[in-house]
Amino acid sequence: MRLLAHLSDLHFGRTDARVVESLLADLHHHRPDLIAISGDLTQRAKSHQFAEARQFLDALPAPAVIVPGNHDLAPLYRPLNRLFRPRAKFHRHLPDHEPWPVWQDEEITVIGLDSTRHLRWTSGKLRSIHLDHVDTVLAEATTPVKVAFLHHPPAESPSGHPFEALAERGVDLILTGHVHKAHAEVIRANTGQSCVLVQASTACSTRLREDANGYGLIRIDMPEIEVTLRGWSGAAFHTTHQVPFTRTTGEWRPRKGHVTPPA
Ligand SMILES: [Fe+2]
Ligand SMILES: [Fe+2]
After folding, report:
1. What is the model's pLDDT at position 29?
2. H or E segment at 89?
3. Distance, CA 246 to ligand 1 centroid (Å)?
4. How far apart are CA 100 and CA 120, in angstroms?
5. What phi and psi, each to the nearest 5 degrees, are found at residue 113?
């Protein structure tokens, strides 16, 4: 069994200090094995914002794997930096974090994919570089569970869901952010393979869209993946949804989801 925490869109530089403090307390209470952060650690990729993010990372109760988000690249109003050194501050402030991290233990393989593009601001795309990387890592992976995480949920195309390519490669679980909205579903490829997709809200920033601040606690205990969404109530984080998935005859399916009362 592994307990994975999925955080996204922290946006240091535009955070609510009470939420940050409470988020850390909630993570320390639940003690996940690993924390996957799917990008947008900062608001404008400024040094002091990365320094705040660094401080947050140092206070986490478990190892973290991180991919950059579009807000972590040099901003477009600094065109030379954007063009030639888009990830310079990410590397300078987080030297111990690769933008394409791989985590492996006896139970899970977790692959981080950098979906940011220096010539675009918001849109990300799953490209051959991502799929080739997944192929390379999974060719050596012997763990029963495979997880991929990236910042952007690519837009759906008429030819199907863009994450089908990850399901076809044997990925069980995909974690994304960027849209600041929590969501969990099964993605099914034409080939019959499937995976669970979990999208996170913004963990601690004031850049709220439809959802309150929140993050995911994901319990992986094959053949089950249970997604618990922890949301900010205004005073603390509590469970807002618990969505269990199960793999039967090689296919991921949702079990009956339900809303649980605040804990
Ligand atoms: Fe964001
Ligand atoms: Fe983003």
Report:
1. 98
2. helix 88-93
3. 30
4. 19
5. -120, 125
Q: Which of 173, 179, 194, 175 is nearest to 249 (CA)?
A: 194
**Are 115 and 125 contacting, i.e. CB atoms less than 8 angstroms apart?**
yes
Mean pLDDT of the chain: 91
The structure tokens listed for 176 are 């994304």
What tokens does 159 get?
Answer: 């030819």
Cα of 64 vs centre of ligand 1, distance in Å, is 18
| Run of H or E residues at 241 | strand 237-248
Ion ligand 1: residues, CB within 5 A, are 9, 40
Contact 41, 2 (CB under 8 A): no
Strand ranges across the sheet with 194-199? 102-104, 108-113, 145-150, 173-176, 194-199, 183-188
Sign of CA dihedral 166, 170, 175, 181: positive
- How long a stretch of residues is the chain? 263
In whole angstroms, what is the distance from residue 59 CA to residue 204 CA? 15
Residue 77's pLDDT is 81
Cα–ligand 2 centroid distance for 205 (angstroms): 12
Report cis status (omega within 30 of 0) of the bond before 223. yes
Sorted by sequence, the CB contacts under 8 Å of residue 80 that are 6+ apart come out as none
The answer to whether the pTM exceeds 0.90 is yes
Domains and CATH numbers, the chain: 2-254 (3.60.21.10)
